[in-house]
Amino acid sequence: MERKDVVKKLITILMELQSEAGDDAEIINESTRPIGGIKCFDSLRGVCATVKCLEEFNIDEEKIVSLFEGKHNEIPCALTVGEVADKILAMIKKE
Questions:
Q1: Domain boundary assignment for the chain
Q2: pLDDT for 67
Q3: pLDDT per residue as tens digits for the range 48-62
Q4: pTM higher than 0.85 for the full model?
Q5: CATH class of the domain whose range is 3-94
Q6: Could you give the CA distance from residue 26 to residue 14 in angstroms, rounded to a whole number?
Q7: Cys-Cys crosslink for 23: which of 14, 18, 19, 80, Cβ 3.0 to 4.6 Å?
């Protein structure tokens, strides 16, 4: 699977979650940080989005709580859509 396809599917998942929650649609792109960058995207929605991503990309990873949180220089931070896509691709290649 190509990175651009993962980014596209990830954006679709995020937009579906917005719609399901009754939130207004926001523009989401590769540099969007869902946590803090999308209205009402909190840790619970991050877990829901993670579950949908794991299902969508057929990844069997029970230890992942949220794909949308990571670390830069050992400091916890919110990841961009592009960074989440890279994380997903690494997990797909690992399996």
A1: 3-94
A2: 93
A3: 999 999 999 999 877
A4: yes
A5: mainly alpha
A6: 10
A7: 18
